[in-house]
Write a structure and sequence with these properties.
This protein is α/β, with parallel strands linked by helices. It folds into 2 domains: 284 residues, Glycogen Phosphorylase B (Rossmann fold, 3-Layer(aba) Sandwich), CATH 3.40.50.2000; 180 residues, Rossmann fold, CATH 3.40.50. α10 links the parallel β9 and β10. Bound molecules: uridine-5'-diphosphate.
């Protein structure tokens, strides 16, 4: 096999990935970039300039447009101007998305055309569901395109059935209607992605964009899903009959033989959290994170803090800084909290979550159930305490708790308040760290999923077969193009 440096740029198949912003998008795209590069492709990771700024600030010299060898292939980075420098426009989410599309269409098209001039024509564009218009650019340039679906296959099915009006969903007349979908458990209205229930705000904007992707579903030649067949067997089987679905997850497993420092963090990691975990007993720490976007409000933050304090349990809690453009308000810890915790808990702004989850001291994960966090918990065999916030997280929580049976869920007050009270948080933390037989079963199930996840990506595993089929298809497209140009 030839080494990447022996390959000329144009002899490698060039796959061009276009990620939306937010760590929950950047991570699976970068993971796919690595997977494809390790198989001998030249991969460009592309995203709006806002992401570029954040990634370059944290990852220093690694985020460059020159191809960097990775496995048998190479990775390079390129970002498109997104108009984000106008702060007054950024505050209006709908306008920001419209501007992103307008400037994105123009600038991304230029960047894609430039690839030909620079001797690395693109064989395939892989894009994000929040960029449905990228399908149209691909089509206009005659470049085949694929969608990387970064939520569960169950959510894909929900959006699909909703968009094409195939089954009844909650409505103004029946807001609490149960939803019955093929090959899925009955979903209560609050198990659905919140986008589908909201009639205003940024979630309505995201719903419109997401559903646009479903209207454009005939354009991608396949839909890659960061999940695995064994995890969502029935719904994958059902949706595969309707769409060219290919489960290729968990994407986070990298080839252990490839040593690379390329990371996609958009926030600086606090290095000492792993050292701190090293100092804690095995299976003693609850890891708490609500992902890269959601920030529970001040009242909820106080309740979590007192729940933790009263439980007496060790914890590592990520409290990320809120960027200026966030729709969430910054929060602070209650006065004197850290001194009362007295070393048994640690607060960090950002951590290497994959490492934290695979650390022997980590017992449970109190999570917002973002799909990346869910797949990372599954891949590390760590049971969860579900505290979904918005978007697909409610559906993921339903699956993690009731279908995968690897966790418990924080319950709201009976008085209808949205706030989870400190007593409930303390109760769940104590339950999760007890030797109750139900907890033992959850731990066992989490370990079982970890094993199945490993098998899916191992040689001849379901995801490994699917990714190889995708790579082979890209090679065919590339060979055909070269013949046409010869
Ligand atoms: N993450 C991380 N460090 C942290 C918190 C989160 O690396 O301190 C990563 C996490 O591993 C996951 C991503 O951020 O890959 C969050 O994605 P997810 O889909 O779970 O949630 P979102 O941020 O989209 O709500």
């Amino acid at each position: 096999m030839s080494s990447p440096s022996q390959n000329t740029k144009s002899s490698l198949v060039h796959v061009f990935l276009v990620s939306f912003h937010g760590q929950g998008n950047v991570n699976p795209f970068l993971r796919l970039a690595k997977r494809l590069a390790s198989k001998g492709m030249l991969v460009t990771f592309c995203a709006p300039e806002l992401v570029g700024k954040e990634m370059r600030a944290v990852n220093m010299n690694l985020i460059i447009d020159q191809p960097t060898p990775y496995g048998d292939g190479m990775i390079r980075f390129e970002f498109f101007e997104d108009g984000s420098s106008d702060q007054s426009i950024i505050e209006d989410f709908d306008l920001r998305m419209q501007m992103l599309e307008q400037t994105g269409r123009r600038n991304l098209t230029k960047i894609l055309k430039k690839q030909d001039d620079e001797g690395r024509p693109v064989s395939c564009i892989v894009h994000n569901p929040f960029f449905p218009w990228v399908c149209e650019i691909s089509e206009s340039l005659g470049i085949p395109n694929a969608l990387l679906w970064i939520q569960s296959c169950a959510c894909f099915s929900i959006y699909y059935h909703y968009n094409f009006n195939l089954v009844p969903f909650p409505s103004e007349l029946e807001p609490e209607k149960d939803v019955i979908l093929p090959s899925m458990p009955v979903l209560k209205h609050d198990d659905l992605p919140t986008f589908l229930l909201k009639s205003s705000g940024f979630e309505l904007v995201l719903k419109r964009i997401m559903l646009n992707q479903f209207n454009n579903l005939s354009k991608p030649f396949c839909v890659l899903v960061d999940s695995f067949q064994e995890l969502e067997h029935e719904v994958v089987r059902h949706m595969s009959k309707i769409c060219p679905i290919r489960t290729i997850g968990p994407l986070l497993f990298n080839d252990p033989e490839i040593v690379s420092h390329i990371r996609g963090d958009c926030t600086n990691i606090e290095e000492d959290c792993i050292e701190w975990l090293d100092s804690r007993p095995t299976s003693s720490v609850v890891y708490i994170s609500f992902g890269s976007v959601a920030v529970p409000d001040q009242e909820q933050t106080d309740e979590i803090a007192f729940g933790l304090l009263n439980s007496g349990i060790s914890f590592l809690w990520v409290m990320k800084p809120t960027p200026g453009y966030s729709v969430f308000q910054p929060v602070v810890l209650p006065d004197g909290f850290l001194s009362k915790v007295d070393g048994r808990g640690k607060i960090v702004k950002w951590c290497p979550q994959e490492q934290v989850l695979s650390h022997p001291s980590t017992a449970f994960f109190l999570t917002h159930c973002g799909w990346n966090s869910s797949m990372e918990a599954i891949s590390s065999g760590v049971p969860i305490i579900a505290y979904p916030q918005w978007g697909d997280q409610a559906t993921n929580a339903k699956y993690l708790v009731d279908v995968f049976k690897m966790g418990i869920r924080l319950s709201k007050d009976e008085n209808g308040s949205k706030i989870i009270r400190r007593e409930e948080i303390e109760k769940c933390l104590r339950e999760a760290t007890s030797d109750d037989s139900k907890v033992a079963e959850m731990i066992e199930n989490a370990r079982k999923w970890k094993k199945q996840a490993e098998e899916a990506v191992a040689e001849r595993g379901s995801s490994a077969i699917n990714i190889q089929a995708f790579v082979d298809e890209l090679k065919n497209i590339h060979a055909k193009k070269q013949q046409e140009n010869a």
